[in-house]
UniProtKB/TrEMBL annotation:
Keyword Electron transport attributed: no
Gene3D superfamilies: 3.30.160.810, Translation factors (2.40.30.10)
GO biological process, one term: translation
Protein name from the UniProt record: Large ribosomal subunit protein uL3m
NCBIfam families: L3_bact
Protein source organism: Rhododendron simsii
Family: Belongs to the universal ribosomal protein uL3 family.
Amino acid sequence: MQDITIATCQMKARNAVDRSHHLLELDFDVMAAASRGLISRIRLLSLITPPPIPSPYFSLFKTFSTCLSTTIEECEAAAQPRIIQSQPGVMTPKSRRTGLIAVKCGMTALWDKWGARVPITILWIDDNIVSQVKTPEKEGIVALQIGCGHKKEKHLTKPEVGHFRAQGVPMKRKLREFPITEDALLPVGFSINVRHFVPGQYVDVTGITRGKGFQGGMKRHGMKGNSASHGASLSHRGLGSTGQGGDPGKVLKGKKMPGRMGGKQRTVKNVWVYKIDPARNLMWVKGQVPGAEGNFVFIKDSVYKKPATSLLPFPTYFAQEDEDEAELEPLVADLGDVDPFMAAD
């Protein structure tokens, strides 16, 4: 019985070995056929010349080579600095002139030729020059930087000194940038005097208001206050209720309460220019302007009450060669030929 079992196992083993040898021979035949087919395909492909495929880089290079001359010319033109000349121009309704920096000298009162009292603020245009020109090619905007006054180099920071030296202008005490249109550009170092404005026109004046410190609600917001009697105890100048007892039970944002008053930038619009004095670079305007005496204010043409384009010098006033500013008389606004007091009667 054991001999039969051993013979059966040996027979099965031989059959398994024969099958494995047969499978290996089949695999070798398949691999050989595949290799022969691959080699034949490679030979066939090597004999066929494929059509040229256009490359995107080739088209890009071709486009660049055709436009190279034009691009170089445009780059050379853009690299050259713009030449700005100081010459009179023609003002259009869309033109925008530069503004000036002035020093507030104080307030007074004048009486015009009809006897009417005019409250006056005196402004001093202290040696305004163009300290920098900003163009779309370099800075992306069109503006003029105006410098006012004089200041010693030792009182300026090193970046400020470097800026003035790079522009080739004297040291200035105050700088201000005014956006303009391209037809109103002026060269660096050009001096602008008070005749940039004309008597009778309207201007907008910007300045920093007087700082008054921490003030209560009555002074800061003009509140009425509480009663002087009838049980009012230590609450005469109080605000009263600042919130609610129930819903929402809080002080709402923006509630007018005591706080710091003044010291903010404000603009007074439509200020009337009464008189200018070219000999002293002084300008008289009607009414008040923000700021204390000695503060800088910034003057520009009015936005709402625009003067006639033929009235203003554009881009600024250019003095004549034989003109002596020291001998010029003050220029007063035209008040008309009709007495306002008689017209009222």
